[in-house]
Task: structure prediction
Amino acid sequence: MTAKTSNIQLYSLCKHKETLEYHIFLARKTDDKCFFSSKISLCGAMSTEERSTCISNCATEEEIRERAATIGDRVCGNCMKTIYKTENE
Ligand SMILES: [Zn+2]
Result:
């Protein structure tokens, strides 16, 4: 089987409009447009409707981690745990 790059799981990093905390959402790309694959964040605590801005759209796991490292503790710890767990499964 040939690996297709389009099958790589993508993520978006979005800021909650009230708590100002960043949460991670599953995302997918179609025709160069980015969509949310799930309306609920990885941790389950935030919905896409509660977002103010997304600082990363359809980013790879590695890009999300790098971005999250620059933001620090304002990134939801549960979302980060979930993204790490997914890789090891
Ligand atoms: Zn979260």
Remarks:
- Residues 23, 41-43, 45-46, 76, 78-79 surround zinc ion (CB under 6 Å).
- The mean pLDDT is 90.
- The chain is about 25% helix and 35% strand.
- The beta strands are 10-16, 22-30, 33-36, 51-59.
